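Work Package 3 (structural annotation) set out to generate three-dimensional models for the target panel prioritized at the project kickoff. During this period the team completed the workflow that converts sequence records into discrete structure tokens, so that structures can be stored uniformly alongside our sequence database. As a representative example, we reproduce one entry of 200 residues exactly as it appears in the project archive.
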Amino acid sequence: MGELLNSKVLVLNRSYLPVHITSVRRALTLLYCEIAVAVDTEYRTFDFQSWMHLEPMGETLGLVSRSMRLPRVILLRGFDRVPRREVRFSRFNVYARDRGQCQYCGRRFPRSELNLDHVVPRSRGGTSAWENVVCSCVGCNRTKGSRTPGEAGMRLVRPPYRPQWTPFVVETYRQRRHADWLPFLSVADATTEAVGAAAG
């Protein structure tokens, strides 16, 4: 049961755009407190009581007297802010951008076996920014040390870059997706294309 309660739920704003991923446990709390409603793949919304009385199917949570469907998508009732259009620079997001691949040897590793490496070392004026930080395995990190890749005789698989918001976020969500999320990821794609066309 603990594993089910910690599994992932997609969170949408009032425009049905993905803004976050949370746990089933947190999603149920938001539903119960009427902060959010559950959404099915046909875009129908359900408050906590109506969701509880849906016929159990697919993934379910066993309660004392019955089973309840697990919500996989929720819509925040009062949150209409559009997701920020810049990807925040963070350790997790660098791992996601580089897809767990050491940018020196090209091999994929579990996150626990990866470091973040400054291409131009901080001791040489390198900054902690998208364009200067990459994933590297422990071995390559040791080999490179406080040198530039050129000085260490190493080459980058690809130069580090600042990812664009929507392709990055949609791909990140898809890596951890549930089938019920797909219609809403398509909405995010379509919205971004429309915004891009209007801006162009």
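The chain is about 35% helix and 20% strand.
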